[in-house]
Amino acid sequence: MKNTNHLSSAFSLRSLVLAAIPSYVFPALMSFLSGYFLQKTELMAASYTTIGLSSLLSTILSFMMLWQFELKQILVQNKWVRTLLVILLMVSLGVFCTSIFNLPSECFNITFSAFLGAAIITIRQKVKNYKDEKN
Question: What pLDDT digit, counting tens, does each position of 64-115 carry?
Fold first, then answer.
């Protein structure tokens, strides 16, 4: 017999990939074009390394956190508290990584990209409240 109590989720590998690709491509492309027009080779080099990668990692980690929030039904009611928490964690992780890997010159690029990646995914990704769906 099939279980008809299955609750659908907006989180899947496909939705992760659909969120992760733009989170790398757009910040990298934006910063590369800015570096190209301003003739700053260091910005062009940072676009696909520190800027694009930190945004990608932030998006993936934020996506996994939101997925766990939905599974465990944590902070499903208040979107702004959830968003603020995830953003603060990702920015803190960015600052922590720049201090561990001794990258003070890249601190702004990494933390700002982590902020953007976390902000976009937390605002865009839906987290379902299963209690509302069961009624």
Answer: 999 999 999 888 888 899 999 999 999 999 999 999 999 898 999 999 999 9
Helix axes 107-124, 79-100, angle to 10 degrees: 160
Q: 12 — phi, psi (to 5°)?
A: -155, 175
Give the predicted TM-score (pTM) of the model. 0.85
Contacts of 93 (CB under 8 A, 6+ apart): 58, 61, 114
What distance lies between CA 121 and its chain's CA centroid?
5
- In contact, 50 and 113? CB cutoff 8 Å: yes
**Six-digit token pair at 131?**
């209690």
